[in-house]
Amino acid sequence: MQNALRIPKQIRYFRERCVQSRERKRLHSTLPEIPGICLHMNGHFGVYIGNGWAIEARGTYYGVVKTRVKDRPWTYWFKSPWLEYVTGPSFKCDTTTDVKLAPGGHYQFKVTAESTPKVNAGTGGVVTLLPRYQSGNDYFYYIVGFGGLGKATGIYVNDVKQFVAHIK
User: Residue 4 carries which DSSP code?
Assistant: First the structure.
């Protein structure tokens, strides 16, 4: 009996459906910031995990590795027809650098979003977060520092860290 590699029907279908898909896009600078996007180069696939990184199986010598997309010769990206790509509500926070507060000091920031954003402090006992007012799609918040000196907490919008509030 001769050794042979049998490619399962599902993999052949995947190759035919995705690699030759009209929806595939040349990589260049068009890669969207969507985790789960499939990456393709000749004879190889990877999965984009965000922030310029991918996961790929590079064989027995390397194993499954995390690599920078720009450091590998990816040629195409596409959305898998078997995945549902769910994106949260988009927003923009006007503060993305750390903030220093004296105990009792306050800071106001603005989040622009189509619907009310979820805003919270990661660590309790450092700041009080107060919604102030809304004007159109702009939502204004106050943080008031009350934690001990040297304490800090992340401020999150829709579960994404925007900045850190430090008590100085």
Answer: -
Mean pLDDT over 16-39 rounds to 71
Give domain status of residue 65, yes or no: yes
Predicted model pTM: 0.53
| Domain of residue 102, residue span | 91-167
CA distances from 28 to 12, 73, 74, 78, 84 (A): 27, 10, 9, 13, 24
Same domain, yes or no, for 56 and 120? no
Question: Is 163 part of a structural domain of the chain?
Answer: yes
User: Residue 102 and residue 5: Cα distance in Å, rounded?
Assistant: 67
